[in-house]
Amino acid sequence: MNFPEHVTAQHLALKAIVYIRQSTLHQVMNNQESRQLQQDLRLKAIQCGWPSERVEIIDEDLGVTGTNMTERQGLQRLLGQVAMEEIGIIFSYDVGRLSRNCSDWYPLLDICGYRRTLIGDKDGIYDPRTQNGRLILGLKGQFAEAEGFTIRGRMQEGIINKAKRGDLIKQLPIGLVCYTKGIVTKDPNMAVQNCVNTIFETFMRLKSVSKVLSFFHNNNLKIPRYINKELHWMKPSKTSIMSFLKNPAYSGANVYGKTEIELIDFSTKKKRRKRLPMEQWKYIVKDKFPSYITWECFELIQSILKENYSEYAKRQTKGIPRSGNALLHGLVYCGECGHKMHVHYSSGERYICNSLKRTYAVSSCQHIPINSVDKFVVEAFFQALSPIELDAYENIVKEQWAQTADIDKMKEQQLERLRYYVKLAEKQYNQVDPDNRLVAAELERRWESALKELKEAENEHKTYISEKTNKLPELPNKLKEAFKDIGKKLPEIWNQILLKNKKTFLRCLIDKVVIHRIRRDCLQIRIVWKGGETTTKDVFISVRRFSELLNAKELENKILELAKLNKKDNEIAKCLTEEGYHSATQKVVLPSMVRKIRYKHGFMKRKGNLCRNQMDGFLTISQMAKKVGVASQRIYEWISKGSIQIEKNPMTGCFMFPDTEEIMNSLIKLKKPLSKTSLPEVH
Description:
Blueprint: H1 9-12, E1 15-19, H2 25-30, H3 32-39, H4 41-47, E2 55-58, H5 73-83, E3 87-91, H6 95-98, H7 102-114, E4 118-120, E5 125-126, H8 131-165, E6 176-178, E7 184-186, H9 190-206, H10 209-218, E8 223-227, E9 230-234, H11 238-245, E10 254-256, E11 259-265, E12 270-275, E13 283-285, H12 295-307, H13 312-315, E14 332-334, E15 342-344, E16 350-352, H14 355-360, E17 367-369, H15 370-385, H16 392-431, H17 437-467, H18 477-484, H19 486-493, H20 499-509, E18 510-519, E19 522-529, E20 534-540, H21 552-564, H22 569-578, H23 591-600, E21 618-619, H24 621-628, H25 632-641, E22 657-658, H26 661-669
Parallel strand pairs: 1-2, 1-3, 3-4, 14-18
Antiparallel strand pairs: 4-5, 6-7, 8-9, 10-13, 11-12, 15-16, 16-17, 18-19, 19-20, 21-22
């Protein structure tokens, strides 16, 4: 037998491999001729001298792309056999079946050349060890790679051209259907349409996916899902609700390029699909589909979802109102570094900026008590809302009636759908041959299941109707009047509002709050309103010690000057408050602070000397105890037990004993266990 060029007896002693591959599953299922051409290479191997028992076909990589070697199990098994010197020749219809990537193709040539393995295709047989063989195989590999780029580029250009016109329809969401001529309409099932509308309306009212989910669960409402092209009604989940809210097709827009493929591992060429932000979507063609919402409404929904993200501190978003006494969490920014401030409850309620501390291990910028900020912002909110004339009560009534009507409509459609399924199951059961018990038993089971589900739904609907109120609970007239003029009356009912609702009200008008501690006892607060207007004011903030006041030394000198003029503490405090001074913890000067400073500088030696030594002929408890020779506490005990009958002096507010010999002797007698002693009344 005359063997082809390069084929030797050594090659014939080894196996011949016929490698078969097609790029896509569509080709595997529909392009059978291509597969047959590749299988015919087995006959060519036999004609070249290989016995049929040593010809093996590897077709494990059908439907797998040739650009990546790691995903092709058949090719990896082939390379293992080449490395073990078990293969004499590899047949493939063309080298593109082996690889469309030169970075994989040339290492394959190297290992085949090292192990003396030939490579054959429909045009001939080549030896990778020879210069001509390696040159031809290398060129064919480059052509195969270029052909892959050309095919992908041509197909991609066709897809993009169709996407630019908005005619590229990959998969429509629930509520939209496409007919054979490419015409997209709303789902003719009115229950599906009503459910989609209810999801969007409920979200625009509640502004939270979790609250929408709770609304559906609390009212036992289901949403439609397609499984194997069949419509099923199932309990909603957070993911299913999000799939409605994030799909731009409901706004009538056909969008292409919402995701991109990124390489995450170069060695294995592992890729993943990455979702792009809305501003990076490639092609947006509006008004291509029937819409459930407007495009502006869709954009608003996306901004709400972004702001509601739980890790709002990292993404610089506000987040939804959460538990805690801080009314402005997610809205407060640091006036020093510009970062968002966090809320700390563990060591006192306060807003704290620790962004630089986490990044650079430096000290925190500032930490501010919550009450100082929240109180001012709430007052500014009331002032901004006061000119508004809004009949909130009537709006609440209308909204409640609309919500109840939506629930009623969905429940009635759900009952109608279940009744149809019962009739359909009954019809199928009646049409079956009674003797065919295998089919009849299954149809009977379906009929009974449909009847049971309908019965449960009807009982639940009766319970819902009996519990449903025909009108809103009557509010007290005073509260109803407050709702009718909510802008002016809101401060009156503010304390009756739930904490989470207070936070929601503030977020309606306030975009963010910037706080900066310009000095220890002064805080600069700038409120940025939704329209872009700002309100800036310096607000007093309490400090721990008098010495932390910026004008502490000046205030102390003022107090001493007035004390030298023999003015009382109340007079000094009132005078200094009118001049604009304040104490460490209050916006006014406290008499107690004046008193402490006077004590400190010796204007009064002890607290007990205040106005007491100035009464001639009377002694204080401490002075009397010293004369009698007992402890002051002993005299207090005698007074509490009633052994001494005495009242506080109305001028000093203290117990004052007349400095007489009679009183002295009476107290001395009390040192012994005697009867109750009565002292003369002291005025």
